[in-house]
Amino acid sequence: MTRFTRAELEAARDRLVPDVVADGLRVLFCGINPGLMTAVTGHHFARPGNRFWPVLHLSGFTPRLLKPSEQGLLPSYGLGITNVVARASARADELTAEEYREGGRLLVAKVARLRPRWLAVVGVTAYRTAFDERKAQVGPQERMFGSTRVWVLPNPSGLNAHWTAGTMAEEFARLRVAAEARPGS
């Protein structure tokens, strides 16, 4: 893996990272916002220690462990990635509540356009702030965006010590089972 200098990472601050999306996905995963490593590489969840890619595989969403640089394969599995807030930062706590709310409004429009079966927000705090759902918990939500169901997943950041890769994979697998079920069943 390429090592970047602090200056290279800082130069990526506020950079935008393109979504990995297609129409009619089974699951559109939604991160909080790109980190600096993601902004430098252009690959979502690129920071070493982020458990998104291993958990995606452990939960059965992908047949093998993908590298962040292979994110372009996701639509072939019916999966995609976007973010609540588009701009890159070193830490999510650098974002304002207004950025989250505006990101939530933009996300609703994106979901209406792309029509995924499920929107999976990875980070309960981001979901609560973006959609003013103060009591939301990890798992399926009552809220829907059109015909798109919503599931909140634990944040896969290595800083989230409340969840192990194994317990995260169990929650991701619950979503996978729901996403594979026939609509209406």
UniProtKB/TrEMBL annotation:
Domain Uracil-DNA glycosylase-like: 18-181
Single Gene Ontology MF annotation: hydrolase activity, acting on glycosyl bonds
InterPro entries: MUG/TDG (IPR015637), Uracil-DNA_glycosylase-like (IPR005122), Uracil-DNA_glycosylase-like_sf (IPR036895)
EC number: 3.2.2.28
Keyword DNA repair among UniProt keywords: yes
Alphabetically ordered keywords of this record: DNA damage, DNA repair, Glycosidase, Hydrolase
SMART domains (alphabetical): UDG (SM00986), UreE_C (SM00987)
Family matches, as CDD domains: UDG-F2_TDG_MUG
Pfam families tied to this protein: UDG
Protein name: G/U mismatch-specific DNA glycosylase
Native source organism of the sequence: Streptomyces salinarius
